[in-house]
C-alpha cells in the first residue's frame, strides 16, 4: 500500500508559548506547553462571529509567536556573544601568561637549575636532537604545503606512478623535480626503517598494555575474593595498658630523615610522637641533614620540647652530608643502641602516620620469620590542590592499589617506597644495609633483600598521609630521580640477580618485568612512538600508525589507570596527554641512568609546601592539647641570636622548559601536516598533545608563582 502524504497539508502544532525573562545579567527561557491551535476554543457559540473571534485569536497568536521567536534569536545571539567573550578573555589571559613567562627569561638551562657536575654538552644534547626534528618538520611542512597548493593531492597509486614515471605528471620545473626526488627518497629509503621502528614500538606498547591489563585483572580478583594480609596474632589494643608494655609491643625504632624541611618538620615529629605504642618500647630518631642553621635550630628545639613532655626522641645531625638519604640512614643504624631494637619504621619529613600505625603493621611480623618488610599505602592531603596534584593522584593510586598490592599478594615482592614502611632490622643487615651507590636507595635495599629470600607484605588498608609536589619543577625533578635511579640499579644488580639462588621465575620477574618492561621499555616507547614516530609519519605517509594505536588502546589504558581513583574520571583526557608529556623527562632520565650521564647522580629534595600542617593536627591537639601547643611554638628569640643576619629568600619564578616547547611546536607542525592528509584522529591527537606540551613548557600547570 502506498504511503499516505496527508501530513503535508495538516495544520499540526503551530507553536509553543514562550515566556522570556530579561533579568540582568542572566537571561532565561521558560517554555509552557499549550494545546494545538486547531482546538475549537476561540469562540463561543456558532456563526460568523465565532469564526471571526477564532480567526483573530489565531492571527494574534501568530503575531505573538513571531515576536517570541525574535526574542529567542536575540537571546541566542547574546549567549553566543557571551561565549565568544569568555573565549576571548581566556585567550587574552593565556597570552598574557605566555608573555610573562617569556619576559622573565628563566629557562631550565639556567646554571642554577642544573647540577654542577653535569656538563653543558650533556645537558643540551637531547634538546639539540629535538631541535633537529623540529626544523626538519618545518621544512617538510613548507614543502608539502607548496605541493598541496599546486594540486598534487596524491594517493598511494599516484605516488607509485610519480616515482616510476615523473614526467607523466608534468614535472618540469625545479620545484617539481625536487619534490619528485623527495617522494622517491622517502618511499625507498625513509619509509621502510621508519615503519620498522614504528612496528617495533607498537609491539612493545602491546606487551606493556598486556602487563597493565594482567595487573588490573589481578586487582579485580583480589577485590572479588577479598584477599588481604591478616596478622597471625593481633594486638588487643583496647585491653592493654600502653605504659606497662608487654610481649605484644615489640621494640621499634622510628626514623625521620629530613633535610631543610622547615615547612613540615613539626607535624611529622608530632605525629610520630603520638604513635599508640609504649614509650619504653619505642625510640624516635630525627635525622637532620639540614645545612641551614636556622632550620637546624628549629628542629632541634622541637625535639627538646617533646623530650620535656616525656617522648623518647633523639636529634641527630651530620656535619658531612655524604650519600644523601642512604648515608643518613646508614649513619643512624650504626648507633650502638640500635641493637636493642628489632624493627625500624621509616617516615619522610612530610609523612604523618596515624596513631594506630604500629598496631596495624607490627603484628604481621609475629610468627612470620621470613617477613622482612611491611609497606603501607600513601594518601595525599593536597590531591585536589591543582590539576598537577590531581594527575599525580591518579598515577599513585594505580601504583599502590594495583601494582604494589598485586605484586605483594602474588609475588611477595615489590619496590620499597622509601617511607611509610616497617623493616625487620635483621633483614636490612642480611641484605647489606643501606648503600649510597644510587639515588633510589629504597629500591636497592628491596631488591637485595628479595635476593636473600625475604618476603614483603603490602597493606592497602593502612594509609599514611603525605603531600604531593605542587609545582611542575619539583615534580619534574622528582620524576627524573625516580626514573634514572632504577637504570643505575639495574646495571649494578644484574650480575647479582643472575648469580642469586632464587627461582627462575623470580629472576625473570625481576629482570624482564620489574626492570626492563616497567622501568626501561615504558618510557622508551611512550616517548619514541607518540612524540617522534607519530609526527614523522605525517611527513612520511608511507609509514603508517593505525588509529587503534593512536587513540583506542591509549584511551583504554588510561581508563584502567583511573579506576582506582574513580573521582578523577573527568580528568581522563588531561591524564592521557600529561603522561605523554612527562615521557620526555622520563626518557631523558632513563637514558642518563642507563649510560651514567651526569644528571643521573642528581639528588634534589622535593619541595614541600606544608599544606598538611594546616588542618591535620587538630586531632592531635584534641588528644594532647598541652603537649601539642608546647611543641608547635618554637623559641624564635634563640633562633635570632643564633642567626643575626638571616639570609634573604630567593625570589621564585616559573620556568620555561625548552625541550617541552620544542616538542610542542613539532607536534603542532605535524598536526598541520595531517590536515593535508585528512587524518581526523591523528590530527586531533597531535593538536591536543601539542597544546599539552605547550602548556607544560610554559609552566602553566601546577603552582603558579607571581
UniProtKB/TrEMBL annotation:
Pfam families given for it? Glyco_trans_2_3
Q: Where is this region: Disordered?
A: 28-63
What does UniProt give as GO cellular component?
Answer: Golgi membrane
> Is the keyword Cell wall biogenesis/degradation in the record?
yes
Q: How does it sit in the membrane?
A: Multi-pass membrane protein
Domain (Glycosyltransferase 2-like): residue spans on this chain: 344-546
Q: Name one GO biological process term.
A: pollen tube development
What InterPro entries would the database entry show?
A: Glyco_trans_2-like, Nucleotide-diphossugar_trans
Compositional bias per record (Gly residues), positions renumbered to this chain? 43-58
Location comes to: Golgi apparatus membrane
Q: Which domain of life is it from?
A: Eukaryota
Q: Which UniProt keywords apply?
A: Cell wall biogenesis/degradation, Glycosyltransferase, Golgi apparatus, Membrane, Transferase, Transmembrane, Transmembrane helix
What GO MF annotations does this protein's record show? Answer: glycosyltransferase activity
Which spans are transmembrane here? 510-539, 656-675
This molecule's function is given as: Probable beta-1,4-glucan synthase rather involved in the synthesis of the xyloglucan backbone than cellulose. Seems to work simultaneously with xyloglucan 6-xylosyltransferase. Xyloglucan is a noncellulosic polysaccharides of plant cell wall and consists of a glucan backbone substituted by xylose, galactose and fucose.
PANTHER family assigned to the protein according to its UniProt record, in alphabetical order: GLUCOMANNAN 4-BETA-MANNOSYLTRANSFERASE 9, XYLOGLUCAN GLYCOSYLTRANSFERASE 12-RELATED
Q: Which family does it belong to?
A: Belongs to the glycosyltransferase 2 family. Plant cellulose synthase-like C subfamily.
Q: What is this protein called?
A: Glycosyltransferase 2-like domain-containing protein
Give the organism's phylogenetic lineage. Eukaryota, Viridiplantae, Streptophyta, Embryophyta, Tracheophyta
